[in-house]
């Protein structure tokens, strides 16, 4: 018969000693929405505490992140002009490209990850080039590769294609290598579901589809086997890090990817997750800090190495306070 172990968790000090899951500010990536113009710091109504920023307002945000020890950002751009081909996405002086340069001037050690997609830049709001049948995969990946190259030239540390087109990782890896960016990492949105949790993001990035939806190229949440095959395909084509998005409803998928592949896994805690917690907290229904930390530990426990979250600043602040 086994002897019953003592309850080591009765002591706060011992609890810390035997804890086996940890979160550090180094694990966190903070999304930033950059908008063309000046004097812009517009709060996103469905995401209280999150803002669309013009570049002249960016340095103050970087100062806050540096103070909190959040060392990585993920950039999204909102251009002044949109067209069917999303040409501002690969404009060498576009909003994201200029944002990368400014961040590297102000905070050279900040890891700058750029979202590589077309939905914020196309007049129709889809993630690629379309015709009457929908998004044209092979044409789209040519544009996606051009966008990634323009971000690399601007000084991005990591490019993160989120379009979900087949073959885009190879196209990006090829164009980066051909232009001397052999060491630039690709963080692929490999497992991205057609989710209802993206609504607030579409307001934030002004990227809602003008017609139809994205189920043609995003994944069906009723299937799980596709997650492994999608991640495997991206890794074989050259992805260095894979993203599972959304995070909280797909912890099982995070664990499956972590157990199957020997690459870092990023969990993207998306806008809908953020909005629900904020709404509950603002109404006094839930304890914001404890809810956020509980779900963040759940993502780490499931196997995420990296956590992309709109709560990054709050989490980093709470970690400091708890020390």
Automatic annotation (TrEMBL):
EC identifiers of the protein: 4.2.1.24
Pfam families on file: ALAD (PF00490)
Keywords for the protein's UniProt record, in alphabetical order: Heme biosynthesis, Lyase, Porphyrin biosynthesis
Catalytic activity: 2 5-aminolevulinate = porphobilinogen + 2 H2O + H(+)
Superkingdom classification of source: Bacteria
This protein's pathway: Porphyrin-containing compound metabolism; protoporphyrin-IX biosynthesis; coproporphyrinogen-III from 5-aminolevulinate: step 1/4
CDD domains hit by this protein: ALAD_PBGS (cd00384)
Segments traversing the membrane: none
Gene3D superfamilies linked: Aldolase class I
One annotated GO molecular function: porphobilinogen synthase activity
InterPro entries (UniProt xref): ALAD (IPR001731), ALAD_AS (IPR030656), Aldolase_TIM (IPR013785)
Key word Transmembrane present: no
NCBIfam families listed in its UniProt record: PRK09283.1 (NF006762)
The family this protein is said to belong to: Belongs to the ALAD family.
Quaternary structure (record): Homooctamer.
Protein name: Delta-aminolevulinic acid dehydratase
Organism (species): Psychrilyobacter piezotolerans
Source lineage: Bacteria, Fusobacteriati, Fusobacteriota, Fusobacteriia, Fusobacteriales
């Amino acid at each position: 018969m086994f002897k019953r172990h003592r309850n080591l968790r009765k002591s706060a000090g011992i609890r810390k000693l035997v804890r086996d899951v940890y979160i550090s500010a180094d694990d966190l990536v903070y999304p930033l929405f950059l908008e063309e113009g000046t004097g812009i710091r517009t709060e996103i109504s469905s995401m209280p505490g999150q803002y669309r920023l013009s570049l002249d307002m960016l340095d103050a945000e970087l100062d806050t992140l540096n103070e909190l020890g959040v060392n990585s950002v993920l950039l999204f751009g909102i251009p002044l002009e949109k067209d069917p081909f999303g040409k501002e996405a690969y404009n060498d002086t576009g909003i994201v490209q200029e944002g990368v340069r400014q961040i590297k001037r102000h905070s050279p050690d900040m890891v700058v990850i750029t979202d590589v997609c077309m939905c914020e830049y196309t007049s129709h709001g889809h993630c690629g080039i379309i015709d009457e049948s929908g998004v044209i995969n092979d044409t789209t990946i040519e544009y996606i590769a051009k966008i990634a190259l323009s971000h690399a030239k601007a000084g991005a540390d990591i490019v993160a294609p989120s379009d979900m087109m087949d073959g885009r990782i190879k196209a990006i890896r090829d164009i980066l290598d051909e232009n001397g960016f052999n060491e630039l990492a690709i963080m692929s949105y490999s497992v991205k579901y057609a989710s209802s949790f993206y609504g607030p993001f579409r307001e934030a990035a002004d990227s809602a589809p003008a017609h139809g939806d994205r189920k043609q190229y995003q994944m069906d949440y009723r299937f799980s086997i596709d997650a492994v095959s999608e991640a495997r395909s991206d890794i074989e084509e050259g992805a260095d890090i894979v993203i599972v998005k959304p995070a909280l409803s797909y912890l099982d998928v995070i664990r499956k990817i972590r157990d199957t592949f020997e690459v870092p896994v990023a969990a993207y805690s998306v806008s809908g997750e953020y909005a629900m917690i904020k709404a509950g907290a603002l109404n006094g229904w839930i304890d914001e800090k404890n809810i956020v930390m509980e779900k963040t530990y759940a993502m780490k426990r499931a196997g995420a190495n990296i956590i992309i979250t709109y709560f990054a600043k709050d989490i980093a602040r709470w970690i400091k306070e708890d020390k």
